[in-house]
Amino acid sequence: MTAPAVSSRDLPHPRREEIRLEAVLHALSDQMRLRIVRELAADGDELSCSHFDLPVTKSTTTHHFRVLREAGVVRQVYRGTAKLNGLRKDDLDDLFPGLLDAVLDAAAHESRRLHDR
């Protein structure tokens, strides 16, 4: 069960014990969502939604962030008018040791392989 939102500005997130492997893998299986996660991992800090320059519509970008949040991959919080996104690396590493690092390493390897053609 997802933790309820306290106000209209609070977004529901799964508690650590509610995060499921199949939801995480589904969230990471999309090219745009993986791109978001790679940027968050590389930056190591919270980034606003507007930071990401994705080649999709705003509504599609919103959808991708929602999938990542509901899967427990990212945490979204409002700070003023900005919605900030942070990778839930500690939670994911605790639940699925090595998974996130392996996915990020594989994505980096694939990116190099495809760009070296």
TrEMBL record:
Domain HTH arsR-type: start-end pairs: 13-107
UniProt keyword list: DNA-binding, Transcription, Transcription regulation
One Pfam assignment: HTH_20
Stored InterPro entries: ArsR-like_HTH, HTH_ArsR_DNA-bd_dom, HTH_MetalResp_TranReg, WH-like_DNA-bd_sf, WH_DNA-bd_sf
SMART domains xrefs: HTH_ARSR (SM00418)
Record's protein name: Helix-turn-helix domain-containing protein
Native species: Streptomyces phaeoluteigriseus
Biological classification of the source: Bacteria, Bacillati, Actinomycetota, Actinomycetes, Kitasatosporales
